[in-house]
Amino acid sequence: MSRISAHNARLDALAGLVQETGVLRLRDAASRLGVSEITIRRDIAADGERLSCLGGYIIPVQDGTVSSDYVLEQEKDSHATAKARACRQAAVMIEPYDTVFIDCGTTMPHLARQIPANAHVTVICYSLNVAEELASRNDVRLIMLGGVYHPEAASFSGDEGIEVLKRININKAFLSAGGVDEQHGVTCSHFHEVPIKQMVMQRSMQKHLVVDSSKFSKVRAARYASIGDFNSIVSDQPLPFVK
Hints:
By secondary structure, the chain is of the alpha/beta class. The chain folds into two domains: about 5-60, Winged helix-like DNA-binding domain superfamily/Winged helix DNA-binding domain (Arc Repressor Mutant, subunit A, Orthogonal Bundle); about 70-235, 3-Layer(aba) Sandwich (Rossmann fold), CATH 3.40.50. It is built from nine helices and 14 strands. Strands 6-5-4-9-12-14 form a six-stranded parallel beta sheet, sandwiched between helices. It has a three-stranded antiparallel beta sheet with strand order 1-3-2. Strands 10-11-13 form a three-stranded antiparallel beta sheet, covered by helices on one side. Helix 6 links the parallel strand 4 and strand 5 (about 120-125). The chain starts with a helix and ends in a 9-residue tail after the last strand.
């Protein structure tokens, strides 16, 4: 096989893997294809159309651009009423002694505030804004996933958190998203969140997507799930493309 043919074959394989997972670790891609990480980076840089390498992850390019423009402080007050309405609906699902996961983002503190009093639940989270809402509650056992802190999202990431999740059974997971699109699925702006979200979905008996309607038909850089992967989609408005 010529060098150009091998290059194109690797790009096709990478594109297929990223389409399946939404985001792919660079080291995992190198291992799967039997080449070095430097070779993978060179292939992606030479192509420049389908994929992008950010940090240690490979993500898809949407319409020629890679979007990672979400900053928590800028989004905090955006659509607050709609977010609170969606979270009130989601909180009804929480039952006494549940073990629940609450995702990061500006929607989820509304859910944390809505957890019923004396519920005696265990809450797993990886974002400071959710932890701050629950840290003083005596009826909530809080498990905070640590790792590397990302100030733009007020959340943590790392292998340590993934290993903790592997040892926990979750009754209900409440996940957030920056975009929900019929074709491109459920996406977020920060690729460091994807491994945590996907592990949570593996460990959860019920998976609920909690978003306000401004996220409908939006697509962000990092895909982490399909719409059909969730037991329910909880929002202030019905999702227009799900019957």
